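Risk register update: the risk of archive-format incompatibility is retired. Evidence:
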Amino acid sequence: MLMGIDPLLPPELLMVMRAMGHGDDLLLCDRNHPAATIARHTTHGRVIHVPLPDMMDLARAILKHFPLDTFVDAPVTRMKVVNDPDRLVKAHTDMQAVANAAAGKPVLIRAIERFEFYREAQSAFVVVQTADPGPYGCFLIKKGVL
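Archived output:
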């Protein structure tokens, strides 16, 4: 037990978050995302499964301890909805609210096409997959400095 650490964060995730450096990306995704396929290309090399049904609970817990990168315009990247790229789904609006609250100001979230997202995700440090049903609940979160 540690004081001040959100109990939703499993030990492996805490270790990986601590090991990440400025500019590294954490991929937070729902249960539909091809997490294992992506994870084998990442620095960590495997998926960290956190079986929470609401991804935003975990996003809030992560962002209590994980500074967003302020040296980039958009420290969060999301996937565009296929065949409707301007559409925002619940996961998108929820993540916007969580990121804004964590930063204490509006955060720009960049949107990219599905396969471009997969390519960028392969360069992430780690993949964290939840049991959230989604859809389109996949976000690259860039770590900043304290």
